[in-house]
Design goal:
The chain is an alpha/beta fold. It has 10 helices and 6 strands. Strands 2-1-3-4-5-6 form a 6-stranded parallel β-sheet, with helices on both faces.
């Protein structure tokens, strides 16, 4: 069973979420909290796996509570569930350690899928926020990249662009007039540079860092 804690200062919202999750066979709502301090206390007592966290709350807001909660119980997965689609909130939430950011108008089946995803270590984001997230992360990444001096050569960028298009090593070699051995070596160097363990992760990391559009 996936143990879920609901954190929202509106009782009606908590009741609605409780009702939405009541019939899910492998999810159980173990508690509710109306503010940040109560959420921290209940996490210690109830040991939830996933926390659905509102942002706008009196006192400690959802982002501050997320930071404190993860310091207390780093194994807990936190999904920010809010009505606010602001880019600033979105970026601050993920910087605080949130595993997901969803809007409150999300359909029940997508909410349940998101809970399962973060419980298995993945991250989740409302599809309507993807453009804002990529733009904001790209701006942040470009700033960080300038500070870190991380860059890809023209050849490395071309390789990743072809990988992103689904090209195989053989196809890349033919397009670039290289041997497959050269492609494999350069891909290995790219993965090392980006700290990636696979071709798809390398592409995703390059996009996130603003190295590939």
């Amino acid at each position: 069973m996936i143990r879920v804690l609901l954190v929202d200062d509106h009782p009606v919202v908590r009741q609605g979420l409780h009702g939405m999750l009541a019939s899910v066979s492998d999810v159980v709502v173990v508690g509710e909290a109306a503010d940040g301090p109560s959420a921290l206390e209940q996490v210690s007592q109830l040991k939830p796996d996933v926390v659905l966290m509102d942002i706008r709350m009196v006192g400690l807001d959802g982002i501050q509570t997320t930071q404190k909660l993860l310091g207390l119980a780093p194994e807990v997965k936190i999904i920010v569930l809010t009505a606010h689609d602001d880019q600033e909130y979105l970026l601050r939430a993920f910087e605080a350690g949130a595993h997901g950011y969803l809007l409150k108008n999300i359909p029940r089946n997508e909410l349940v899928a998101a809970i399962h995803s973060v419980h298995h270590g993945e991250r989740t984001l409302s599809p309507t926020l993807m453009t804002k997230a990529l733009k904001g992360l790209g701006e942040l990444a470009r700033h960080q990249r300038k500070q870190q001096g991380l860059s890809l050569s023209e050849a490395e960028t071309q390789i990743l662009q072809l990988v992103a298009q689904g090209a195989t090593n053989k196809e890349i070699a033919e397009k670039q007039f290289w041997s497959e051995t050269t492609v494999k070596r350069r891909l290995s160097n790219i993965l090392d540079k980006l700290g990636a363990s696979s071709r798809s992760e390398a592409v995703a990391t390059a996009v996130r860092l603003g190295l590939l559009e």
